[in-house]
């Protein structure tokens, strides 16, 4: 991959790009075959029983499904697990129940979670910024910015950020891209931590990875990855690319890429600006989607397309950009840095418990 970067056309940016819409005009998974629909119904059935409880939970964690858990159990969620299970309904049910246990044990729906892992975020080692041409949010990782030593906290933060990427997915988008940059003398990788990330992604985030692009790979990292990749399933392994240009490959446009990846966005992480903007954006998306989900009946199995789809009166301008009610600073389609404003070009279109 070339190290040259595109000319910067913007001032420094410190906050996330607002979510876009227009990538899909209809639900990509709206239509199922008769046999697929039957298998889907089999997966849906146990979770909709009034007396359903997550099996194998500790006594203090037992109880019926919470509203957040019912919301998570969307039609598209069940289909992701079915596809990942090669359309074996019983396997899909078991995997979903394992993820429900993991999410409850690790407080994935707890609104106070952000404050507990915030110290991990202050260096900008993981950020969500921009979208590829398919609308997939980009998860950037900079291992050289590692600032703590607690592996459990590293894992908590990694998946908290991925959850925020899910909060930024437009209607019809179900996957994210991982862009990992090993420049600037990245610390020696932790084999156990890497294996835990792979295990959690495989078990609890099936059908979520779009591509994984890794650049500036030094020799010792390359040797490390040769140890790790054999444990990755073949489908996921095929999505991992080394030292390739996501710009030249046509996956991203310049205006949606950081300059380190040949884009023209000069993103600079400033925690006091990025962190509250990310949380506000994601919370407002989540609140809007849940309100619509409740209006649709608040049931398990509601389509993500149906509760994410934007009505005409929710659109801004010509409908190409939707920012879901976030603050005026973000909704203006500009990024503000103190007294400067810069135009933003947008394109329409399982391991141990993490909790201590």
UniProtKB/TrEMBL annotation:
CDD domains: SEC14. PROSITE patterns: CRAL_TRIO. InterPro entries: CRAL-TRIO_dom, CRAL-TRIO_dom_sf, CRAL/TRIO_N_dom, CRAL/TRIO_N_dom_sf, PI_Transfer_CRAL-TRIO. SUPFAM superfamilies: CRAL/TRIO domain (SSF52087), CRAL/TRIO N-terminal domain (SSF46938). Gene3D superfamilies: CRAL-TRIO lipid binding domain. Residues 110-269 form the CRAL-TRIO domain. The lineage of its organism: Eukaryota, Fungi, Dikarya, Basidiomycota, Agaricomycotina. This is CRAL/TRIO domain-containing protein. It holds the Pfam family CRAL_TRIO. One of its GO terms (molecular function) is phosphatidylinositol transfer activity. It comes from Coprinopsis marcescibilis.
């Amino acid at each position: 991959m070339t190290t040259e970067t595109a000319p910067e056309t913007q001032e420094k940016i410190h906050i996330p790009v607002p979510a876009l819409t227009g990538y899909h005009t209809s639900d990509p998974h709206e239509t199922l075959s008769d046999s697929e629909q039957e298998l889907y119904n089999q997966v849906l059935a146990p979770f909709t029983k009034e007396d359903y409880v997550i099996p194998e939970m500790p006594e203090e964690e037992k109880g019926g499904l919470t509203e957040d858990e019912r919301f998570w159990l969307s039609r598209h969620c069940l289909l992701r697990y079915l596809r990942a299970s090669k359309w074996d309904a019983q396997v899909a049910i078991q995997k979903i129940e394992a993820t429900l246990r993991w999410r409850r044990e690790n407080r994935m729906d707890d609104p106070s979670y952000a404050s507990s892992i915030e110290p991990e975020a202050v260096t900008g080692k993981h950020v969500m910024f921009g979208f590829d041409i398919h609308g997939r949010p980009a998860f950037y990782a900079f291992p050289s910015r590692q600032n703590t030593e607690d592996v459990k906290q590293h894992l908590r933060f990694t998946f908290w950020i991925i959850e925020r990427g899910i909060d930024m997915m437009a209607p019809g988008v179900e996957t994210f891209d991982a862009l990992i940059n090993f420049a600037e003398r990245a610390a020696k990788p932790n084999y156990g931590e890497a294996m835990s990330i792979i295990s959690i992604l495989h078990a609890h985030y099936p059908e979520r990875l779009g591509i994984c692009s890794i650049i500036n790979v030094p020799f010792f990292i390359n040797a490390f990855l040769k140890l790790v990749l054999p444990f990755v399933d073949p489908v996921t392994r095929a999505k991992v690319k080394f030292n390739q240009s996501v710009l030249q490959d046509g996956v991203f446009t310049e205006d949606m890429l950081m300059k380190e990846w040949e884009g023209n966005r000069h993103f600079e992480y400033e925690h006091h600006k990025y962190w509250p903007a990310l949380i506000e954006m994601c919370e407002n998306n989540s609140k809007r989607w849940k309100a619509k989900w409740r209006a649709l009946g608040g049931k398990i199995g509601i389509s993500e397309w149906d509760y994410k789809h934007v009505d005409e009166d929710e659109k801004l301008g010509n409908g190409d950009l939707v920012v879901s009610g976030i603050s005026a600073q973000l909704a203006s389609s500009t990024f503000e840095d103190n007294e400067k404003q810069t135009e933003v070009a947008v394109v329409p279109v399982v391991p141990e418990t993490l909790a201590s």
